[in-house]
Each structure stands twice: as structure tokens, then as C-alpha cells.
Design brief:
Distance between the termini: 188 Å
Pfam family, one: Sarcoglycan_1
Protein name: Beta-sarcoglycan
Subcellular location: Cell membrane, Sarcolemma; Cytoplasm, Cytoskeleton
Number of strands: 11
Oligomer: single chain
Largest sheet: 3 strands, antiparallel
Membrane topology: Single-pass type II membrane protein
Strand content: 5-15%
Number of helices: 2
Main location: membrane
């Protein structure tokens, strides 16, 4: 029959052109509808894992966050430096650096602590003042143990070795604490000196002015070999008591006047020996030596068996 396959004993079955086309179309149709072609099901837990997972992933995230924070801080510091120093296309607008090592500030600068290098100098421009201001705090200049503090109400200088002020133009010493070569003199224009404790051989004033020593509390004047007070007129004004102590004697040479307004006195009705009070009379020798005599009765003089005046009395 025409159009049918014929089979011979010596070879395969021969197909017609129409049968081959139908078979090819069926195979293509089957392949196009088979989406699982080449798929082999495998357990994912048995596969080799790649990438950062688990603790490594968390650590990587922490590192990234830390780097981001450091980048933000670095950006803030850069912006602050740029705003303070004012770096522009023409260089730094707030300061200048010179080859000689000079650092010049071209505008008002806000600083906390300045540490100059060895043998450094801090100064202002020619014909301009150098203004240093502390915001509600004193300005302190310190070199070793020497310290100069400038506050709102006072200026103090502290030094263990001494201090010296001199004119930078003439090099003349205006004020010095080198007492071994010269006496201590107050600078011109200084009227008073405020100290807590002073150790000196003598204190004098000018011939045309008075020497006034004033204290707010208690004043102690002590001499290892005695205290000598000399002057045309010597006056003591105390709000409390005055105590004179001496190992040997107290000598007053000159006219001595004592105001009795504030001295304690007994009334006319008191009888000596009627109470527990012990009274003494202050007596003075011709050479100014003072001594006391116990009062045992009214109108009693300075007669005593232990007379310090000797034959001069």
C-alpha cells in the first residue's frame, strides 16, 4: 500500500515523510511542556554554604556600623576644624605660619591652655595692644613654680625664687625682691603692700610720710633679738587687747600717754580685798622701764621691795 511503512527482513522499518513530521511535532510538544527536565532534588542542608551567616554576619554588621559612626565623627571634627581655622582657597584665614617658626593669629582666638615651646615668646603686633581676656576665670601665667594670676579683683604673683620687674627699653630694675643686694622699696605709685607674713630686718617709711600698719584681725610682731619701734610719734589703736611680752624688760623711752577711757576701773564703793580680784599698778622707772606693783590699799604708790629701777628710783 502507498503511504504505509514497509518492513523488510534485512533493515529497519522505513517511515514516510508525513509520519516523520508528526513524530517530530509530538516530541517538540512534549519537550516544551516538561519544566522539570534536568532537575535533580537535593537536600539544601548538605550543600556547601557560602557568604557570612550567623555570628559572622552579626559581627560584620557591627563592624560596618562602627565604621559608619567613625566616619560621622571624623566628618564632624573636620567641619569644626574648617569652621575654626577657616581654611579656604587662599589658605588659612585665621592664622599664618612662617618659616621662622612664628605663628600669627589674624583674628580673635578662643583658647583654653597654651603651652609655648622652650624659649618661646608671646607678643602682639607693632603699635597694637595684646588683649588677653578670661571668661569669668583668672588669667594664669606659669613657668615652673612661678605663677602670675590676674583676676577680676586682684593680681597675685607666687614664686619660690623671687621676682624682678624691669623696663624693657632701658633695662632699669623697677622692682625686685633681691634683698641681698639692695633694700626693698615699693615701686613709684604703690601706696600700700598687702602681705600675710613678712620676714625682714626693718620696716621704715619716707621722711615726709607716716608708716601705717593695719590688720583686720590679729597682728603679731616678733623679733629674735628684740623689737625696736622708733618714731616721732607712735600710736596704737586696737579694737581688742594689746599684749606686750618680753623675756627681760619692756623699755619705753619718751613721753608715754595712755587713754584710760577703755581701761577697767573699780567703783568708789569697792573695798580692796573684798572680792577675788587681784589689782596691780603700772609703774615706770626714769629710764622708761615698766614694772607692776600689787595694790593692797588705796592711794598706794610704787614702793616695792623688788625694785627693778635700782638706785635711780
Amino acid at each position: 500500500h502507498l503511504g504505509s511503512s514497509s518492513q523488510s527482513s534485512n533493515g529497519p522499518v522505513k517511515k514516510s515523510m508525513r509520519e516523520k513530521a508528526v513524530e517530530r511535532r509530538n516530541v517538540n510538544k512534549e519537550h516544551n511542556s516538561n519544566f522539570k527536565a534536568g532537575y535533580i532534588p537535593i537536600d539544601e542542608d548538605r550543600l556547601h554554604k557560602t557568604g557570612l551567616r550567623g555570628r559572622k554576619g552579626n559581627l560584620a554588621i557591627c563592624v560596618i556600623v562602627l565604621l559608619f559612626i567613625l566616619a560621622v565623627i571624623n566628618l564632624i571634627i573636620t567641619l569644626v576644624i574648617w569652621a575654626v581655622i577657616r581654611i579656604g582657597p587662599n589658605g588659612c584665614d585665621s592664622m599664618e605660619f612662617h618659616e621662622s617658626g612664628l605663628l600669627r593669629f589674624k583674628q580673635v582666638s578662643d583658647m583654653g591652655v597654651i603651652h609655648p615651646l622652650y624659649k618661646s615668646t608671646v607678643g602682639g603686633r607693632r603699635n597694637e595692644n595684646l588683649v588677653i581676656t578670661g571668661n569669668n576665670q583668672p588669667i594664669v601665667f606659669q613657668q615652673g613654680t612661678t605663677k602670675l594670676s590676674v583676676g577680676k579683683n586682684k593680681t597675685s604673683i607666687t614664686s619660690d625664687t623671687g621676682m624682678q620687674f624691669f623696663d624693657p627699653r632701658t633695662q632699669n630694675i623697677l622692682f625686685s625682691t633681691d634683698y641681698e643686694t639692695h633694700e626693698f622699696h615699693l615701686p613709684s605709685g604703690v601706696k600700700s603692700l598687702n602681705v600675710q607674713k613678712a620676714s625682714t630686718e626693718r620696716i621704715t617709711s619716707n621722711a615726709t610720710s607716716d608708716l601705717n600698719i593695719k590688720v583686720g584681725g590679729r597682728a603679731i610682731v616678733r623679733g629674735n633679738e628684740g623689737v625696736f619701734i622708733m618714731g616721732k610719734t607712735i600710736q596704737f589703736h586696737m579694737g581688742g587687747n594689746m599684749e606686750l611680752k618680753a623675756e627681760n624688760s619692756i623699755i619705753l623711752n619718751g613721753t608715754v600717754m595712755v587713754s584710760t577711757n577703755r581701761l577697767p576701773s573699780s567703783s568708789s564703793g569697792d573695798q580692796f580685798g573684798g572680792d577675788d580680784w587681784v589689782r596691780y599698778k603700772l609703774c615706770m622707772c626714769a629710764d622708761g622701764t615698766l614694772f607692776r606693783v600689787q595694790v593692797t590699799g588705796q592711794n598706794m604708790g610704787c614702793q616695792t621691795s623688788d625694785n627693778p629701777c635700782g638706785d635711780l628710783y
